[in-house]
Amino acid sequence: MLAFDLLKTDPDSHARRGTLTLNHGPVQTPIFMPVGTYGTVKGVMPRSLEEMGAQIILGNTFHLWMRPGLDVMQSFGGLHGFEQWKKPILTDSGGFQVWSLGAMRKISEEGVRFASPVNGDKLLLTPEVSMQIQAILNSDIVMQFDECTPYDTNGHITTEDEARKSMELSLRWAKRCQAEFTRLENPNALFGIVQGGMFENLRQESLDQLVEMDFPGYAVGGVSVGEPKDEMLRIMAHTPHRLPAAKPRYLMGVGTPEDLVEGVAQGVDMFDCVMPTRNARNGTIFTRWGDLKIRNARHKTDHQPLDTSCTCHACAGTSGVSWEQGGREGFSRAYLHHLDRCGEMLGPMLTTIHNLHYYLNLMQEVRDALDAGQFTAFRAKFKAERARGV
Amino acid sequence: MLAFDLLKTDPDSHARRGTLTLNHGPVQTPIFMPVGTYGTVKGVMPRSLEEMGAQIILGNTFHLWMRPGLDVMQSFGGLHGFEQWKKPILTDSGGFQVWSLGAMRKISEEGVRFASPVNGDKLLLTPEVSMQIQAILNSDIVMQFDECTPYDTNGHITTEDEARKSMELSLRWAKRCQAEFTRLENPNALFGIVQGGMFENLRQESLDQLVEMDFPGYAVGGVSVGEPKDEMLRIMAHTPHRLPAAKPRYLMGVGTPEDLVEGVAQGVDMFDCVMPTRNARNGTIFTRWGDLKIRNARHKTDHQPLDTSCTCHACAGTSGVSWEQGGREGFSRAYLHHLDRCGEMLGPMLTTIHNLHYYLNLMQEVRDALDAGQFTAFRAKFKAERARGV
Q1: Torsion sign, CA atoms B288, B294, B300, B306
Q2: Which of A10, A269, A272, A340 is catalytic?
Q3: CA-CA distance, A116 to A69, in Å (whole number)?
Q4: What is the pLDDT of residues B229-241, one digit of tens each?
Q5: Which residues of A touch B52 (CB under 8 A)?
Q6: Comparing C-alpha atoms, which of B198, B207, B132 is closest to residue B170?
Q7: CB contact at 8 A, A30 and A270
Q8: Is the distance from CB of A44 to CB of A356 less than 8 angstroms?
């Protein structure tokens, strides 16, 4: 099932505030979805995700197909029971991952043939197989199998003709996905994915045909695939707000905090990105006042938490009171700098909690601003604060 | 300060039940102390340690002296504030670590000269310096600086003459530690360490002279240093129960669950060991029914938690209800096997929680048995259950 209630629209932008109801519960939008590739959001426990307000997480179909495999997934009745996450899950189609195998895969009308990177087995991923795997995973949102049109291939920038062929293949695959999803009587929701590369006319064609197929939700794919920032912003400005207003819109694989706020303004409801978790493990921290590199020697003796306004477990400890509000239970920059220097696991554990909390809290602030009719003021404040510097 | 109240003694063994009161609070004995070398018990958050009932943890003087260094420690007023742990801390003297540097260090009457493994600086660790560092760390229990007599050196088993010289050096250093600890007006408690290698007569001499110096607590050092198990058990049977009954007794660096229960029977009150945390990271799990290797393929589809009787977060989730009691919120062996196979951080995070909980809960069961006057029956049950197999 999927129900989408549009609660409020911003008069000065395409931003919207909504509630998405899925088989495993409701999701307040706009929302950021942490990425849990192998059935775990890297470095964080499910209970911590719940505590920081995560409402829906991702799983990767391709990875979970390879390991632990479908027999294990089936025995648990899907991904929820396996990873002990009770709220909604969205799974991708595996298309992006097989595409990323490069020379290891061959794309045809039928689907993608490839050798398993785990054991070398020759495998075939088709729209039908993707639907079958995602049915076993029992994810609340199933993504159509598509071809992610590259921005460039070994320096050759994708031409309009190439982008059209790729987009049209994805459309034919969308139809096959819809048919198989229906045949499987999957009780969850299938999203179509708009492709078309960096060409607005192709994006429009893709969008029009997908809308005709009447999916319960739509994604914008093929962005954040190596293109320059202004190209991404151009597509972000073109496509999302042209999608049906009554249905949820998901911008795949985006992005920085600034990208998220801009995406909301362009009418996006859902985002996912590995950036908060990956950057946390590399010591790059997102804060209200800009980004911070914990490896920098200037943090060696700093008693302040990562973000003085933050109430996450890393910054505020079990008290939940931020440094600004007088809380002194959090972990200091000096301590996190030390953990990083010593290669201690607790370092990425705490920075992952902080970065995810930052993203989730940012979206909470976005929702609060939309609820209050203050989104324009929020955008200005967000931009000024991020530019201040830590 | 240190107060030790002996609550109960077992009529059939040397086992005792006590309460140790330190500057940062009380500790119920017998107790296991998780090891937090660099100011973090590897892979686990302070809040998780509290939830699983940890009452006191260790810090390593040598490591913390090297990184983050004394300036940082001093600015935090000690180790507690730096690592956000509010309960008692015990620090070792650094003696074992400098001794472990092998060719990199030179031992003299004055102390140990060595090159910093972090930056190559030429350093000198003496009884006085160890006391000064531990005063800055503000640990509740300070260990004397000693020479850990090796069992063998490159295959040469330590002779009685060598063990005597080493033991006598440690005794002279014990006096210097006591003088410096007093001069520093350290408000915490200093423990003396019995040495003497594998020789009962030397152990007795060491013990007698340390008792004469009237420390508030005593440790047995120089065991679990590579000697055969029966040698360790021989010293464990000789020394602990000969220490003053009114003072706490700490067996350093020991050991397996079986060693802990045997140690309690021999009159030991306090234990520490890296085994639960290190083994967790290597996928070796302690359970009531024996040990388990999570990498073993037989766990691939097993829905049971690591230990069906366990209430830790890994085995029982947020419910705290064990599998045996009908709880189904825990993480399965299949899931933990998968995390291990994929190299996901959540694997060691959960197995570390489990193994530490196992050790801490074992000591809780030991204390309960002693309180109930059932220690002999407990030992038999413990042995039978561990032998059953997982």
Answers
A1: positive
A2: A272
A3: 12
A4: 999 999 999 999 9
A5: none
A6: B207
A7: yes
A8: yes
What's the pTM?
A: 0.98
Lookup: tokens for A24: 């495993």
**3-state SS assignment for residue B70:** helix
Q: How far is CA B256 from CA B52, B260, B280, B287, B290, in A?
A: 19, 6, 13, 12, 11
Could you tell me the two tokens for A184?
A: 């499987």
What CA–CA distance (Å, rounded) separates B354 from A112? 42
Count other Cβ atoms within 10 Å, centred on residue B159. 11
Tell me the C-alpha distance between A329 and B45, whole Å.
Answer: 13
- Asked if the Cβ–Cβ distance from B76 to A334 is below 8 Å, we say yes
Can you give the C-alpha Rg of chain A in angstroms? 21
Handedness of CA B335, B340, B342, B343 (dihedral sign): positive
- Closest Cα to residue B180, out of B225, B223, B125, B254? B125
Residues B325, B316: Cα–Cα separation, whole Å: 10
- Cα A115–chain centre separation: 27
CATH 3.90.1150.10 fits B2-273, yes or no: no
For A40, the closest of B71, B332, B344 (CB atoms) is B344
Instruction: Report ipTM (2 d.p.).
Output: 0.98
Average pLDDT over residues B187-216: 98
Where along chain A do its domains lie?
Answer: 2-273, 280-388
pLDDT digits (tens, 9 = 90+) for B42-61: 999 999 999 999 999 999 99
The residue whose two tokens read 């985002």 is A271
The token duo for A157 is 């920038």
CA-to-CA distance for B358 and B364, rounded, in angstroms?
Answer: 10
The sign of the dihedral angle between the CA atoms of A67, A70, A76, A77 is: positive
Q: Which residues of A touch B (CB under 8 A)?
A: 38-40, 42-45, 47, 67-68, 71-72, 75-76, 82-84, 300-301, 303, 313, 317-318, 329-332, 334-335, 337-339, 341-342, 344-346, 348-350
